[in-house]
Every structure is written in structure tokens, then in C-alpha cells.
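Subject: Response regulator

B.,
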Amino acid sequence: MEEKTIQVLLVDDEERIRSTATTLFKKRGFNVVTASTGAEAIEKIKKNGFDVVVLDVKMPDMDGNEVLHKIKKLKPALEVILLTGYGSPDSALAGMRQGAFAYLTKPCDIDLLTLKIREAFFKGKGMADVDRRVRDLMVPLTSFSSVRMDWTVAEAIEVLLGHKTIVTATVEEEPVEVVIGTKTIITTTVDEGIHRCVLVRDKSDKVMGVLSFTDFLQGLESTYMRLVEERPSVVDRAGADAQNHSGIFTKMVRDLGRKPVRELMADKPPTIDADATLLEAANRLLSLNVRRLLVMHGDKVMGVIREKDIMFEMAKIIR
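Prediction pasted inline below.
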């Protein structure tokens, strides 16, 4: 089944935000056009067929609610999501009264914004009450950082924390700026802090497994248990001597950092078809006791669907 690419117009006066958000949205499978002013946005809407507009309320030439009013006069059915770090309940209410689809405050979870864009798209197409499929909620494969099986655990941690980038033959992940409050951090993909895991690939770029925070802790636990078996007297002394105890922890962590990723990584997640229902996905997550599934289209990996993605959809339906 061919999936339509959602056409998004992003309107924000900050070039850095436009550049960063464009990267984020493209990794999520959207086609993105940007505008730096309200006037520019209006002109582009006149000439192009967008599905959703993501509009910053605070801009120098005209207020976002004024832009929203003009958009609704031009194209009443075009869905608009208001996005701002300067919002107030009054401006939010004004925007919703003028027909805004949603009002989100910066910084917002990229998964939540992605969900709202998709919801707005489906509403615009008259499909608001149609059950989503796995492909509609999955996180595209390119949104996840990757590491090699033969990398060290220390290198993998750098990637997971967003301090290092891997460039492969088929997947190129550019560092992008993500603004969090008043701070700007450099990260290799959309949101490592949200995914909390990286994909592990072999030399041919095939996904072989995943590596998460839990795997690091389990690796530390296995090192500790081995120490208990091989040198119980050292562990006993450490328990009675706080000074020795801190030294042992540091040594164990450093030893762990030198291990290859293949020794810590979890197996490749179970798979599910891209056109499967969300009920099937939820049942598979529960029955297999896993937190994520690889989404397949034929023999090709398309992305990952997590329990969090299904929870967002459930929350939307309940509201």
C-alpha cells in the first residue's frame, strides 16, 4: 500500500529552529517547506497544497493568530498547529476559537508534535476516526542512532548520549541542534533521550540488535557477579570499606567500557508488519514482553514502534 507523504509548512522566524525542525520532520517522513515570516507563509500557501501548517505564534511581522486568521480565510480546511514558547492561555484560546487544530508549547516532545501533525492530516482528509495502522505511528528507522557490533561500549555510550555520530554506507546521520529551554545541545538524531536506545548494525548495515540503558546496567551486573564468583574476598572487603568500594565501581565501569557492543546488545526486536493493526501491535508487545517492535514492509525494515507510541494514540482517543 502506497503511503502519501504529508506536506508540512513550518513557519518560524528563527533560522536555527527552521533548520533543526526540518531535519526532525524529514526523518519522520514528512515533506517540509519553511517560511520565516507570516507574509511569506501566506504567499506559499497561495501557491502550494499543504496538508498541515506548524505555525509559531511569536513572529516580528505579524502575530501567529493573525496569520492563522488569514490562512483560514484562504483555505478553511487547512489544519494549523500553533507552536510557541511565549504562549498564554488567552492566546491559546484565541487560536482555538479561530480554528487552530492544536496549541503546543515549546519545547515539546517531537513524538507528540509528530502525532499532532498526523492527526491533523487525517482530520483534513476526513479520516479522524479511522483506526491507525502500525505504519502511521512508527518511528522511521533513520530517526534512530546506530552503532557497530565491533565498537566499544564506551563509543556506544557516546552515541546514545548524542556526543558522537556514525556514518554508514546507507544511513547518514547529521548532527542537528535541538533547543531545550534556553539551552542548545548537539545530538545525532531526533531525540536520543526519548528513544533511550540505539540500533546495532553489522558491516553491511543490517540491524542485528539494540543497545539500551538497561543493557549497560545489566552488563555492569554481570561484571559484578563474575567478581563475586572469582574474587569474593575483594567484594567482602569492599562492602566493609567505603573507600575500596568506590574504587571497585570505577574499575568495573571502565572495564565495561572496553568491551565490544556485541557482548552487551540485546537481540533484534521481534517484527511486525507495517499494515498490522495497533491492537495486533499491543498484543505482540505484551505477549512477547518487549518494549519495541521492528516494523517490516516485506523483507525491509521501515522503522520501530514502541509501547510509548501506542500509549500516545490511546491517550488521544480517550481525550
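The longest strand covers residues 300-306.

T.
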